Structures are given as C-alpha cells and as structure tokens.
C-alpha cells in the first residue's frame, strides 16, 4: 500500500510539473503572435502616383499595417505628402516614403519650386545692376532695360518687367581673388517668369543693358511708366 501511494504521489507530482512546463511552452508561443499583430497607420498610395505628380488627398490614404512591416521612411500623416510632388513613381498600395516626396521645397531641386505654367530663367548681374548685392531669394524686382537705338532716339530706357520673384542666387564673389563671401555680389539671379516674359527677357539680355530695382515685399502694384530717352529729356529732367 505504501508503494502504491508513493507511485500515485510521484505520478501527481510529475503531472503537475508537466502541466506547468506545457503551459509555459504555450505562453512562449503566444507572445510573438501578440507582438506580430500590433499595428500602426501609415500613408499608402491609393492609386499609382507618377513621377512629378502633385499628390492630392484622393491619391493617398492611411492604412493600418503590422509594426514589423512599416518602412523606416514611411510617412504617417496626410499632411506630410498632400500638396507636394512625387520624386518618382509610387505604385498603388505602396507605402509613401519621405525620400519619394519633395516635401522640403527650399532644399529640393529648383524645378520642384516652379509653379505650373511658369519658367525659371537666369541673368547675370553686377554690383550696380543688382542693387549692390542686397537682392535675396524671395525678393521681388523690376527690370529696366536700356536699348542703344529705338526709333532713332539713341539710348532708350524702359521698365520692361515688374514684380518678378527671385528664385535663386548664384555664387557670390568679393575682391580680386574671387573668394566667396556672404556679403559679395551675386553673379547670377534666377527669376520666375511666364513663357512670354522669358522670350522678352532673352531678347533684352542680347540687345540691351539690364538694371534691377528692388521692391518692398508688400508692394505688388504694377506702375504705368513711359519710356525715357533723348526725345523726352527736356520735359522729363526729373520725375
């Protein structure tokens, strides 16, 4: 009888130990499954977005995906992509990555900063023609063009362009050595123009001498001014 009791006790003991080990094993199996099903929302393409396309709300959507499948560059809000251009094709269902969206327009390629229907064109400048180097990116300027001979009147100056935006500045130089400085005069200015203005500006650069005037940022009004040359010199000594 004592032997049978011992056997029963040992059997119960091993049964409890086995049950405990089996429960621990099952718990370890379930823990990874719990982690795998943790999800978060990321931005995905609702339809294929071609390169250089403006991303609108109908082209993207938020989707809940497992944490382990989230790309390190995945965007997680509509605001991070809507209103910006796609740098390359984004396939429908694909996560929208920060490296594929031109969201930082100030540091992106200049082409991404040109509005539809507009053009960027560059012109050379000197200390006199560029307001002593005080023109900065984002400023607006007028362009005066002086032609050698128009209608037999000798030199003629026209205010040919008004309120043009400066998109970029070229390298600045100061002194005879050509060393770059922050206070030097820019050798080139890139302006935002319409296609028609681009033609006129190209002609002006080939046929006349350009002089820029700097505008107050809040002053966008275009002023009607007449040309100035020898024929009106006596009546327009001052204006």
From TrEMBL:
Residue intervals passing through the bilayer: 7-26
Coiled coil: none
Domain SAF positions: 40-102
Presence of keyword Transport: no
Xref: Pfam families: RcpC, SAF
Keyword Translocase recorded: no
Keywords: Membrane, Transmembrane, Transmembrane helix
Cross-referenced InterPro entries: Pilus_assmbl_Flp-typ_CpaB, RcpC_dom, SAF
Name of the protein in its database record: Flp pilus assembly protein CpaB
Gene giving rise to this polypeptide: cpaB
